[in-house]
Amino acid sequence: MASSTAKEIVVAPDLWKPAQVQLLVFPESRDGKYDLSWWKWVTENDPESETKKMTEKSALGKHKHGVLDLTIDPLRIIWTYAGMLDVDNALVMPSPEPFPQACQTLLDTVEKWVKTECPPIYRMGFAARVAYEQDSRESAYECIGKLLSPYVIIDPQSTDMMYRINRKRPLRMGTEQVTINRLATWTCVGLHISLRTSVGHTESMTIKKSSPMSCFVELDINTDAQRTTPLAQSSVFDALREFTAMAIEIASKGDIP
Asked: Is 3 a domain residue?
């Protein structure tokens, strides 16, 4: 499990809504010649769409409470579990499940693939984009100030704030200890959209709408980019589970060493 810290939970993990959670692996072979049939093998269903470009291919379809995307390019294999867009409620960020549950769904979905089908890899990562909705800009900045305390002091009257930091940690993978990057980017954001409508020959009218402000954090937990030898295959899934635990810990406690 992720090492504990003295800092207490600031935001309950279930209150964070993920736009998406991802597993990224970087195969030792970089020819990208892997099969989209993995999507069906993992879900036991056919994907709703497949896209093939010059250097990238992907399969996409509904899965559990959201959508599952498998993207393969010459450098990476990416599994993404994300929310489904509701066109009738465009100001609500699509989210499949609360953050801990979305992480568990991703783990359950890719476990068999990671353990039996994943090619040798020299790097891996877990990424997530999560939001915690607030009633106002001031409350959003007050909340993110608590999450970043005591390392960063945030004035609730602030605007346009962004804070990014990489808090590295060691992790045992197989017989070796590797360095894990724990990159977090913190912001306060609101969603703004403009809708232009017209009826017949009447003049068009623009309707502007805004969503409440949210605390927002992008998380990227990954192994060292400079590594050139394969990771221990038998420890990849355990590492992924550890990465999700680290991500949930950062979201709930904020900036922690």
From this structure: no
